[in-house]
Give the backbone structure.
Amino acid sequence: MKPYVLGIDIGGTNTVFGIVDARGIVIASGSIKTGKHNNIEDYLDELYTEASRLIEANEATDKIHGIGIGAPNANYFNGMIEDGVNLPWPTPIPLAKLVSDKFGIPVAITNDANAAAIGEMTYGAARGLKDFIMITLGTGVGSGIVINGQVVYGHDGFAGELGHVIVKRNNGRLCGCGRTGCLEAYCSATGVARTAREFLEIRANEPSLLRNIPIEDITSKDVYDAAMNGDKLARDVFEYTGTILGEAMADMMVFSSPAAFILFGGLAKSGELLLKPLRNAMDKNMMGIFKGKAKVMLSELKEADAAVLGASALGWEAKPIVEAVAPAQ
C-alpha cells in the first residue's frame, strides 16, 4: 500500500488539506479559501494546484493511496454534496468524481462529523472501540455514530444527525435546519451565545461581566471567559447547556448503547463547566440498565489537525467506494 493519503476538509470559509501517514501524522498541510470561487471548476483548479505543490514539495508524488474528503452534507454512498447550504456553488455536486478525475486518485467522501468519528477511530480516543458516538460541538452540533466498527449511514447516506434531535417540543428555538427545538439550537457555540443573550434579558437586574459587551456581539468564548472569572450568570449558561446535552445523550444511549461518547470542538474545551452538568443530567436521566456503562471522553485529535485527520482516515478505504459510484465506461 502506498504510504500516504490526502485529507481534505471543506468548510464554508476555508478548505484545509494535508498529507497524512498511516500513524496519523500530518506530514504537511495547506489551505485555500472555499468561497473565493463561485465556479466549482475554478475552485478545483486552485485546490489541485496547491495540493499538488504540497505533494511535490514533500516528495509524495505517486505515494498517495487515496483522497478522503469531509464536507457539509456530503453523501458517502454516491460521492455527492447534496445540499451545501454554506458553500458558494449550486448543489448537488458530484464532488468525489470531480476530485478523482482531477487528481487521478481514488476518492471517498463523507460529512464532516462522520469524518471526525472515523478519524477518532483510526488515530484518536476511539482506537479499539467498536461502539461509540462522536459529538462535535462547534458552530452547529454534528455527530457520527459507530456501531460494531462501522459508521452508521442509513439507507440514503444521511443517518446520524443527532444535532437535529428535538429537545424542546414546545416553544423551541428556530434551528438553521428550519425546524424548532433542535439540540443544535441549544448546545452549539451559537446556542451558548443565544442562551447568554436570553439570560441577560430575563435576569435584567442581575450584574454580569457580559453586560460589558454589546448583546449581539456576545460569543461562546465571551461566556466561557466570564464563567471562568466567576460570573454566576455565565456559569448558569453552561449549567443549562450541559444539562440539555446530558439529557439528550441519555436518550442516545438507548438507541445504540455506545461504550463512549467522544466530544470534540471548541465548546468541548470548556471542561468541567460543561462536563459536570452534562454527566449529572446524563446519569439522572439514564435508563437503569445503561447506568454507568458509557464513558464521556474528549477527542484526542489535535484541533489544528483534526479536520484533515478525519478526512484522511477515509482515504485509506477510498478505492472500493469510487469503484462503486463510478459511471459505467
